[in-house]
Design a protein that fits this description.
Its cofactor is Mg(2+). This is exodeoxyribonuclease III. One of its GO terms (biological process) is base-excision repair. The longest helix is centred in the N-terminal third of the chain and has 14 residues. This protein has two helices and four strands; from the N terminus they run βαβαββ. A four-stranded mixed β-sheet has the order 1-2-4-3, with helices on one face. The protein has 83 residues and is α+β, with helices and mostly antiparallel strands. It is globular and about 35 Å long. The chain is 27% helix and 23% strand.
């Protein structure tokens, strides 16, 4: 478990992640940042694809869905962090 003093948090406006290729590139970029928690804005996420995004990220994602062409936020957690 990570102590709070070592917690690294990132926040990014991704301007839409519905495109699979863009989402994979963004997820790879996020992993390279080595943050423990990522806050993503303007994800354009919808409830129907939430399980796909969880599988692609490889860990839990908490989402608040907007409309398909606007809004939406996600919180992505690093694999070894206890949530």
């Amino acid at each position: 478990m990570i102590s709070i003093t070592n917690l690294k948090i990132c926040s990014v406006n991704v301007r839409g992640l519905r495109d699979r290729h863009k989402r994979r590139k963004v997820f790879l970029w996020l992993r390279q940042r080595k943050c423990d928690i990522h806050f993503l804005q303007e994800t354009h996420c919808v409830e129907a694809t939430e399980h796909i995004w969880n599988n692609e990220w490889g860990n839990k994602i908490l989402s608040c869905h907007g409309q398909s062409n606007s809004m939406g936020v996600c919180i992505l957690f690093k694999r070894n962090i206890a949530i």
